[in-house]
Design brief:
Layout lengths: L27 E6 L2 H17 L3 E6 L1 H13 L4 H7 L2 E5 H8 E2 L2 E2 L1 H19 L6 E5 L1 H7 L3 H15 L5 E7 L9 H9 L3 E3 L2 H4 L4 H44 L4 E6 L4 E4 L1 H7 L3 H4 L11 H12 L4 E9 L5 E13 L2 E11 L1 H35 L4 H31 L4 H25 L4 H21 L2 E6 L8 H18 L7 E8 L3 E8 L6 H10 L5 H12 L3 E7 L2 E9 L2
Parallel strand pairs: 1-7, 1-8, 2-3, 2-6, 6-7, 14-15
Antiparallel strand pairs: 4-5, 9-10, 9-13, 11-12, 12-13, 15-16, 16-18, 17-18
Helix pairs in contact: 1-2, 4-5, 6-7, 14-16, 14-20, 15-16, 17-18, 18-20
């Protein structure tokens, strides 16, 4: 199509200010504007000039703009109704016209050419034929742009140019500058300008009154353009950097060895990484967009966990059991916190660590500890019963039993020590190992007690008094406790079973009772009359707890396996053993009938 001839200015002159009504009858001009009133005034001048000269005019615009143009034409003294009745003025609705030739998101050339070509022919014919001018204001392209269909708007501009090859008209388009407010609009803006024979800038430029002001404005616009280009380049660089970091973070989370997931405010799982999906055995479709509560075995536990998040608490190492796709259970620890925006809960971020192996090992170790404790208690009870019965045996028989016990108990304790070493090497088993080691120490102490019972020093040869004096001398040297021994002149020899029992009672009393009561002095008296022999062991310590005394009298236990055994042995000999204690010391009293 032919285009309007725009005057050429030299380099020193400012940009010209073309007007729509200055264009030739076949121009295709675009006007950019910021104020709709400016646009409508310009349109009314173009259309008014054509109608006033007896030519034809077509307005293809929105209903509101068509009404505004009609009002302005009437204000200029034009009879719009008469022009319309004559067919020289045609008013068409832009959206209705688009509906007739748009095929989806793209304009169809044939129905467009037929629709608009017929309107141009009718208007020219009404104006008197071929020398007549047809002025058109078209707003269909602006409607398409406002709908976000830039590609269709540019295509329609070219359809107008194609139509100009077969029909003579001057076309005037209008775009709001506010519609081109993003950097990505630059290329489309350039294409729109290229599709027109003339471009009229917005009123902020065209309203300037002199060349100096226009040159200043052009310079300011150039500076702003440079600044915007620089800012756009920096924003692109920053955006690219952010995209790289986001990609790196997404890759890190997706490939993390520990489970990570995001849960929305509706408790539905928005995202989870590969590690968590692999742990539970679900695909993304089976896990995403499902309620997190569906995978928790303990629903009440999940409600407790979610309640803490809703109270804006950060949850550390929350123990939970998650149900896997194959029906198995994974024991996990969850570390989670919530994301909030202006008081609104957005989502929860959770890190999920699998502790199934550790939990199973702890259960196994706990079972082992329970079994170990049971075995030690059984053997302790057996040793206690054996120590009571062995007191009345002859030395040869005691030595035989000692050898047998040494062999069997040695094997048992060796195996127990190996188990404890394995337990100590396992991570997280320190507490269980310490408890089991205490059980081992108790077992060893019981064996030592039995050893003392089986091997009384010089009892058969020297008798009770000499054996006791020999033992007390060594005990005083080892313990630092001053021990005084008092016996009656007529003590003489007693039955072997009674002497052995009294000797062992002295040993156990000093070792398990008085030695741990804070005593510095212990007094031992052995007296007899015609029917009974009496033993008293008293110290000057701080005493023993009432709870231990109560347990001793109720069960016979609580003061060590030796005293417990002696208590039972004294009862077998028909005698009585008692303990008394207060803040000034502890006394052990024994009375055994001689016959």
């Amino acid at each position: 199509m032919s285009t309007a001839k725009i005057p050429v200015y030299d380099g020193a002159a400012p940009a010209p200010i073309p007007q729509w009504h200055d264009q030739e009858p076949t121009g295709h001009v675009v006007q950019f504007y910021t104020d709709e009133a400016f646009l409508l005034d310009s349109v009314s001048r173009v259309i008014g000039k054509a109608l006033g000269a007896g030519d034809a005019a077509i307005v293809v615009a929105t209903a509101e703009h068509r009404n505004q143009v009609s009002q302005r034409l009437r204000a200029r003294g034009l009879d719009v109704r008469a022009a319309a009745q004559q067919g020289r003025y045609i008013s068409l609705d832009a959206e209705a016209c688009l509906a007739k030739f748009m095929r989806g998101a793209h304009p169809d050339p044939s129905p467009f050419a037929e629709l608009i070509g017929n309107a141009i022919d009718r208007a020219r014919s009404a104006a008197g034929g071929d020398p007549s001018r047809v002025a058109i204001f078209g707003e269909m392209v602006a409607v398409l742009w406002a709908q976000g269909n830039a590609e269709a708007a540019i295509a329609l501009e070219h359809l107008w140019n194609e139509l100009a090859k077969t029909h003579s008209f001057s076309l005037h388009c209008g775009y709001a500058l506010q519609a081109f407010n993003r950097d990505e609009h630059a290329e489309s803006f350039r294409k729109i300008c290229q599709a027109h024979s003339a471009v009229i800038p917005g009123e902020s430029y065209t309203s300037l009154m002199n060349d100096e002001a226009r040159l200043r404005t052009i310079s300011e616009l150039q500076q702003k353009a440079q600044a915007l280009q620089r800012e756009a380049a920096e924003k692109r660089e920053i955006g690219e950097s952010l995209r790289r970091r986001e990609a790196e973070l997404a890759d890190f989370l997706e490939n993390a060895l520990e489970g990570v997931q995001q849960v929305g405010g509706d408790q539905k799982i928005r995202w989870a990484n590969e590690a968590l999906l692999k742990l539970l055995g679900y695909t993304r479709e089976e896990y995403f967009d499902h309620s997190q509560a569906d995978f928790h075995v303990d629903k009440n536990g999940f409600e407790e966990f979610w309640g803490k998040l809703m109270q804006r608490q950060e949850v550390y190492d929350f123990a939970a059991d998650l149900r896997c796709k194959d029906g198995s259970i994974k024991h996990v620890l969850i570390h989670s916190n919530g994301s909030w925006d202006n008081g609104q809960f957005m989502h929860a971020r959770s890190f999920v660590r699998d502790v199934t192996g550790q939990r199973l090992m702890e259960q196994a170790l706990h079972a082992s500890k329970t079994e170990l404790q049971r075995m030690v208690e059984q053997r302790t009870a057996a040793l206690r019963r054996l120590s009571v019965r062995v007191l009345g045996l002859q030395d040869a028989e005691r030595r035989r039993i000692a050898r047998e016990l040494h062999d069997s108990l040695g094997q048992y304790l060796t195996g127990l020590k190996i188990d404890l070493d394995m337990l100590r090497e396992h991570p997280g088993s320190a507490e269980l190992w310490a408890q089991a080691e205490q059980l081992l120490a108790r077992c060893i102490a019981e064996v030592r007690t039995l050893s003392y019972l089986l091997h009384p020093p010089m009892m058969d040869e020297a008798g009770l008094f000499s054996a006791a004096r020999w033992y007390l001398q060594g005990f005083g040297e080892r313990s630092g406790i001053t021990v005084n021994l008092e016996t009656s002149d007529d003590l003489d020899r007693l039955p072997d079973a009674i002497e052995v029992a009294l000797f062992r009672i002295i040993q156990e009393a000093l070792t398990n009772v008085h030695r741990h009561s804070g005593a510095t002095v212990a007094d031992i008296r052995i007296l007899r009359d015609a029917e009974q022999v009496f033993l008293e062991v008293r110290d000057n310590g701080h005493g023993i707890p009432k709870e231990v005394l109560r347990r001793f009298y109720e069960t016979g236990a609580g003061t060590g396996v030796g005293i417990t055994g002696m208590h039972e042995r004294v009862r077998e000999l028909g005698g009585n053993l008692s303990l008394e204690s207060d803040g000034t010391g502890t006394s052990l009293l024994v009375a055994i009938p001689i016959t």
